[in-house]
């Protein structure tokens, strides 16, 4: 939507009283709802656009300073990062395969693209103890307990991504199963891709 259309929308909305704009953060990902109170005098097209950009999560969300807020607020606690060079001639095919794998875990794992060429992403790469020479790589991260795993790749394939995610989920289930005598397994059994 163009800035002109946003301006018209915000003018129309501001003419009403007690208006709240609800934004479902890309329902295909996490079903979370965040609201922007339109009663505030300082809401304009720029602020509304920023609100939407910060909160939109796609099937594969590119990590950057704007989307970081939506990523951190997602109800999905498992994040899978593809850390890769977007300038690589192999990038379009990698992304096609990564998106296909994301479909298998929709609503279960947040799939994130991290461009290794961006200076702002250097900390993310170093957090997973990776060097540029080890990329592309997958990094999975469980936000509540910060458990993580990394897999360096020659190439991205749906099968390798699926296997990496399933193995991580199974390890988590085993660890939690030992701690809570199988309670977690009963609740989360359908998380593994390919399970009913």
Describe this structure in words.
- This protein is of the alpha/beta class.
- It folds into two domains: 3-56, no CATH class; 62-191, 3-Layer(aba) Sandwich (Glutaredoxin), CATH 3.40.30.
- 40% of the residues lie in helices and 19% in strands.
- The chain has helices spanning 3-14, 45-55, 68-73, 91-104, 122-127, 158-180, 183-188, and strands spanning 20-24, 33-37, 60-62, 78-84, 109-115, 137-142, 148-152.
- The strands form two sheets. A five-stranded mixed sheet has the order 3-5-4-6-7, with helices on one face. The chain has a two-stranded antiparallel sheet with strand order 1-2.
- α4 (91-104) links the parallel β4 and β5 (109-115).
- The protein is globular, with a radius of gyration of 19 Å.
- The termini are far apart.
- Mean pLDDT is 76; it is low at 13-32 and 182-189.
- One of its GO terms (cellular component) is endoplasmic reticulum.
């Amino acid at each position: 939507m163009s800035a002109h259309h946003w301006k018209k929308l915000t003018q129309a909305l501001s003419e009403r009283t007690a208006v709240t704009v609800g934004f479902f953060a890309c329902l295909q990902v996490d079903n979370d709802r965040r609201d922007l109170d339109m009663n505030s005098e300082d809401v304009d097209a720029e602020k509304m656009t920023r609100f939407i950009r910060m909160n939109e999560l796609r099937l594969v969300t590119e990590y950057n300073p704007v989307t970081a807020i939506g990523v951190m607020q997602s109800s999905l606690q498992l994040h899978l990062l593809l850390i890769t060079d977007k300038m690589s001639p192999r990038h379009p095919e990698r992304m096609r395969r990564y998106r296909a794998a994301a479909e298998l875990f929709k609503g279960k794992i947040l799939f994130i693209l991290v461009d290794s060429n961006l200076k702002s992403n250097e900390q993310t790469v170093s957090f997973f103890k990776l060097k540029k020479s080890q990329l592309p790589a997958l990094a999975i991260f469980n936000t509540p307990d910060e458990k993580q795993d990394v897999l360096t790749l020659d190439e991205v394939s749906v099968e390798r991504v699926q296997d990496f995610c399933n193995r991580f989920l199974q390890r988590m289930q085993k660890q939690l199963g030992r701690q809570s005598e199988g309670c977690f397994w009963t609740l989360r059994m359908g998380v593994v891709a390919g399970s009913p």
